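Two entries, shown back to back:
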Amino acid sequence: MAKILVVDDDQAILDMIGMILTKDGHLVTKINNPLEINMEEVHLYDLILLDIMMPKIDGFVLCSKIRKLVDCPVLFLTAKTGEDSLVTGLSLGADDYICKPFGVMELRARIAAHLRREHREHSVRMVVGRVCFYPSLKKMMVDDKEVPFTKSEYEICELLARNRGQVFSKEYILEQIFGFDSESNDSTITTHIKNIRTKLSDYNYMPVKTVWGIGYKWEK
């Protein structure tokens, strides 16, 4: 199951796409007014479908705004098939386009192909907002710039980011990162968190929050 956002001012098309993708087991959010998109939540979607020709704000402008916030596939729904239009869309960060009118099988196949590719890519990376994690390399990037973390600092960030919004105690983090038989204590985690925040401050980014009396979380 994937979380898919569909934005189109044509309610009939919106309902048809929603029905098709829901039958395929996906969780679909339908929006017919592009100005109603909650930009703080777009990173939660696995794939986004955008109509190009919409009132108030077109798909090109919307794509450029969304692409700054997400790394998931963005596909255009378009009746415009001119080469210039397609080049413009792809240059703004779209991954692909589906021309209207389209068939049910084509829609399903294109969506499935992009979701499969995304799954393969995320097996070696994880994107959370402005951050991209590379677990096999123990490397974290903020806005395409590597943060000079130690291995332990990286692992703490990855643990929190994978479970963003969930609060973990110092004891739990200590056990997960250093093991049950570690001779380290809670102050080790406190120090690591301090170092993480110091390094992230250089990027004007501070997702690790303290929940007083409980522990730490990666803010959603």
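entry 2 starts here
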Amino acid sequence: MMLRAKYLIPVTGFFLLGSCGVIEKSSMHGFDSGYYKLKADNQINKVYVDVEDEKVDAYPLVGNQLSNRVLLAIPSMVPDSIISTPIWFSKKSLDLDITSVLLKYRPATNGVPGQMTTDFNVALYAGWRHDFYRLQIKTNPMGKRHYAIVNRGYDFGIFAGPGSTYIDANTIRDPINYEYNGIIIQFGVAGFLETSFASFGISTGFDCLLSPDRPSWIYNKKPWVGFIIGIALN
């Protein structure tokens, strides 16, 4: 009740120019209606957040029941005063992405020095995502202060998918007199840092060559480390 009375104040600027919605979404993981944890004044409440064009309302959960009492109301109008207490929303969710390892570092092996590769690859990624949304004070070019939601997050998970790799006499133990782009299946784990506009992180895994040269390929099922990016599917 005290929380409601303290924060039931006008808040503006979930959008910089006023022509967008309450939250300008540039990813599939925007601040949408749903269940969150609300942290304010060192109190944590489980809430359902109703995001509309003109306002954001947070309704508390009492046990397993959703209350119709508004715990936090954020209308999109110019505030009389700027709030100073940090307000955070957080949630956990399953993350499904299409990913690509842009850079792979393969350690030295069989007399071949360590190397960085940029071969084509894609993979399906599944992980457990943690998102944090902070109510932040910003100032526009006219010197007027307003509020915006800043999204940060992270997740960890596994991925698998096809790719290609260059095969020649240097990467095959048995002597060969040909070269080609071989097809691989890659497997691994990855950790992502999430923003409202991109997902990027570090991955590690191994590749399985699908051609008959697989038993002689020096990198077959050998670990590598890479830089990975993702595009959300859910």
